[in-house]
Amino acid sequence: MTGERLDHLGIAVTARLRLRHKQEGDALNDFLWRRDPEIARFDGVMPLTKTFSEYLDYFRRLQCFADPERRMLSLESADGRHIGNIMFYNADSARQSAELGICIALPEYRGAGLGTEAVVAFLGYLWNEFPFRVVYLHTLEWNEAAIRCFEKAGFSTTARVLRGKQWFLRMEVRREWWLLWEQEGRFAPYCGVAAGVALPGATPG
Question: Fewer beta carbons within 10 angstroms: which end of the chain, N or C?
């Protein structure tokens, strides 16, 4: 859904992004993105093979029955365009940990630092709302842009993991260190608009 503000669903806002709860209007975009071979390649998975009807049933079940082990939010541009998703999953209450995933699905919104901005905002939300002490992720070792994004957001590499025939880097960040870095201003550059960066639909200031 483009241009319609869903303020009652908002979770976090940055200068260029809004993180909000899912709503049914997101289902078609999510379905198309999960069927996209390029997006699947960057996730290290196979494209979705379900029909839209099957996916919509799955989407509605997730909306109706909250799963404490996962939560997905939509990423909106400043003009209200749904451009991707960010989520935690595999939450483990005993280990006080969860895995993070993110997708900037629209190519015209990549390469402008929005991934880092989204991850920083999402981590701030997680530390405030959930008892996680560690957040980790897995990214393909050839995806240098993603690795740089996660490093800027506070993650560091802890292991190299083989899944099928693909190598991933496991990266993680710890709550106490991240909050200390935040107080020191480490993430301040990623909370606003980078100088000289213009985004689709943005009005120059």
Answer: C
Taking the domain 10-190, which CATH number applies? 3.40.630.30
27-80 residue pLDDT tens: 999 999 999 999 999 999 999 999 999 999 999 999 998 888 999 999 999 999
Q: Find the length of the chain.
A: 205
Surface-to-core class of residue 53, CB atoms within 10 Å of its CB (0-12 exposed, 13-18 middle, 19+ buried): exposed
Q: CA neighbours within 13 Å on the CB side: how many for 195?
A: 1
Q: How far apart are CA 164 and CA 21, in angstroms?
A: 33
- DSSP lists the bridge partners of residue 173 as 135
The amino acid sitting at 125 is Y
> What is the 3-class SS of the chain, one letter each residue?
CCCCCCHHHEEEECCCEEEEECCHHHHHHHHHHHHCHHHHHHHCCCCCCCCHHHHHHHHHHHHHCCCCCCEEEEEEECCCCEEEEEEEEEEECCCCEEEEEEEECCHHHCCCCHHHHHHHHHHHHHHHHCCCCEEEEEEECCCHHHHHHHHHCCCEEEEEEEECCEEEEEEEEEHHHHHHHHHCCCCHHHCCCCCCCCCCCCCCC
pLDDT digits 0-9 by tens, 110-128: 999 999 999 999 999 999 9
CA distance 136 to 173: 6
